[in-house]
Amino acid sequence: MKSTLLKSINNPTDLRKLDVSQLPELAKELRDFIIDIVSVKEGHLGASLGVVELTIALHYVFDTPNDLLVWDVGHQAYGHKILTERRTKFDTNRQLGGISGFPKRSESVYDTFGVGHSSTSISAALGMAIASQLKGENKHHIAVIGDASIASGMAFEGLNHAGVTDSNLLVILNDNAIGIDPSVGALKNYLTAVKEGKNPKQNNMIKSLNFDYSGPIDGHDLPTLIKELERLKKVKGPKFLHIITTKGKGLLQAEEDQVKYHAPGKFDATTGEIHKKSEENLPPKYQDVFGLTLVELAKNNPKIIGITPAMPSGSSMKFMMESFPERAFDVGIAEQHAVTLAAGMATQGMVVFCNIYSTFLQRAYDQVIHDVALQNLPVIFCLDRAGLVGEDGATHHGVFDIAYLRCIPKMILYAPKDEIDLQNILYTASLGLKHPIAIRYPRGRGKNADWKTPTNFQKIEIGKAHKLKKGKKIAILSTGTMAHNVSLAIQEVDDSDKIAHYDFGFVKPLDEKVLHKICNKFASIITVEDGVITGGFGSAVLEFAAKNDYVNEIFLCGIPDKFIEHGTVDELQQLCNIDVDALKILLLDLL
Fold first, then answer.
1. Best-predicted range by mean pLDDT (43-52, 195-204, 400-409)
2. How high is the pLDDT of residue 279?
């Protein structure tokens, strides 16, 4: 379809020049534009397709950016970006040097709050609304939040506060019954009852929090949306609009398979068919190694339990949920609850695998310390997406976990160098540990196509490092899957016989016996990690050296002390000088 209206719109001021009758046509053009770009460039598809009409209506009715619009998480903000001066560079979305896949304050005045993690929009918009009151400004403040995100504790904290203020806040619930995976929990059931008209108005939980509640209304009906938003502009105090949408709206396959089309990769823009990639003889995804191994272990141990906060597909906990539904729990977007739930189960002798993305465990830091480590409960944290994750960027990189977990007493911290090590540490943890353990592993695939050895698990000795290669001049110490980059770099050096390579799977406890041998033998030591240098694995080695009065020359390779933006993992490793070429250059300089 040839775009005519969309090409004339560079910002919301242009949008407001259109007649309401033209907006449905604009919605179709905007939807097609998103599909055309994402089909080639990849990204988050379904969420943005579902809010096309809402996006147009919000910018049409409200005076953005003077009125402040906050998107929760931001998966759904592609249409917003296109209508706010970024249409011509939308094809750079999530690419190195291009625009971010999420709203970002430094990118545009229309992006009023940086997001990427869920359930922050209500608190942020309320903060803006209170500030506007104090400054005597007459502004509207709108938070758009999904039914999966609103179930999170932080969202309720924001609602609870907003309800006792007279702030000019509008919360819009975009109810499509799905986040990345289908929404779960009692609140989801309540919202379903509201949609079906089975819940009497006098029992409305939002009204009971002192919000002016309206809805549910059809979120794809532009005239109705605009009429209701215009009405709400005149209502004082906290307001709540409940709209019903379809994730993936406008692309049949995205509507029918909303999980797969959340971020489908490349696909045919006309037919919607996803371009198939041959997975024959490919190494497995680390998440699948975790998920399938957990099922194998659970077959022989009825005390094994799996917990995930709203990521059963992304973490591959889905395999456990399919095989042992009574022992696998998706608790929704509730990382704090997930951790303390695991702790409660552990007090009763259960073997609990709490599977959370590294970046999301940050949201439950107090629970890790207070509810797990302080009580020395042997919860097994499985941290998917550790290290650099690529195009999702700064909000999603799992680069802080070594630093923030290493300082916690009693915490064991392990990073497998490959799939076999991941299997074996899961097996080892399932046998019972005296302390909690965090196992960190990356997004993406491993290196061994023949990884499946369920009947041949090997117990791993806690705190033991391993020499992978002998050498006599330089020792290079890697943790986790960075061992692969190190091995390739060593192979490309002519004097490779002078380089020793050690795998420190355990960042805590460190193998001090091996470290003493290394410090006594090698003048130059290099540490390599895919976490932050500040407080990370290299810092642990430096601390050991300082404590024991060693004066070795120690070089730390890892993520520098800055936030890393979006790009492919390979590109970002190059930026951080932990790719094969950068490591090779460092080795050559020291030889």
1. 400-409
2. 74
As a whole number of angstroms, the distance between CA 214 and CA 74 comes to 24
The pair of structure tokens assigned to 124 is 């942020």
Alpha helices in 444-568 (DSSP H): 482-491, 512-521, 537-547
CB 390 within 8 Å of CB 567 = yes
252-285 pLDDT tens trace: 888 888 888 898 889 988 888 888 887 778 899 9
Q: Return the structure tokens found at 496.
A: 């490779």
CA distances from 292 to 284, 298, 453 (A): 11, 10, 11
Strand locations in 160-295, DSSP E?
169-175, 212-218, 239-244
Please name the residues in contact with 70: beta carbons below 8 A apart, sequence gap of 6 or more. Answer: 103, 112, 113, 115, 121, 124, 125, 128, 141, 142, 143, 144
Q: Which of 31, 363, 406, 508 is catalytic?
A: 363
Q: Do 293 and 300 meet the contact criterion of CB atoms below 8 Å apart?
A: no
Give pLDDT tens digits for 183-199: 777 888 888 887 777 76
Residues with Cβ within 8 Å of 101's Cβ and at least 6 positions away in sequence, in order, are 43, 44, 74, 93, 94, 391, 392, 393, 566
Spell 70-93 as b/e; 16+ CB within 10 A means b.
bbbbbbbbbbbbbbbbbbeebeeb
- What is the pLDDT, as a whole number, of residue 60? 98
Catalytic residue of the set 87, 247, 285, 417:
247
- Does 202 have pLDDT greater than 80? no
335 assigned to active site: yes
User: In the prediction, which pLDDT does 179 show?
Assistant: 67
The answer to whether the CB of 392 falls within 8 A of the CB of 262 is no
- pLDDT tens for residues 506-554? 999 999 999 999 999 999 999 999 999 999 999 999 999 999 999 999 9
443 carries an active-site annotation: no
- Tell me whether residue 157 is one of the annotated catalytic residues: no
Residue 1 pLDDT: 45
* Distance (Å, whole) CA 30 – CA 93: 16
**Tokens found for residue 371:** 């509810």
Rounded to 10 degrees, the C-alpha dihedral 46/52/54/60 comes to 160
Task: Calculate what percentage of the chain has a pLDDT beyond 70.
Answer: 97
Side chain identity, residue 587: L
Is the whole model's pTM more than 0.90, yes or no? yes
Structure tokens at 451: 């990884």
Q: pLDDT tens-digit profile of 60-71?
A: 999 999 999 999
Contact 3, 29 (CB under 8 A): yes
Active site residue: 53, 228, 296, 335, which one?
335
Give the helix, strand, coil percentages of the chain, each rounded to 5: 45, 15, 40
Asked if residues 552 and 524 have their Cβ atoms less than 8 Å apart, the reply is yes
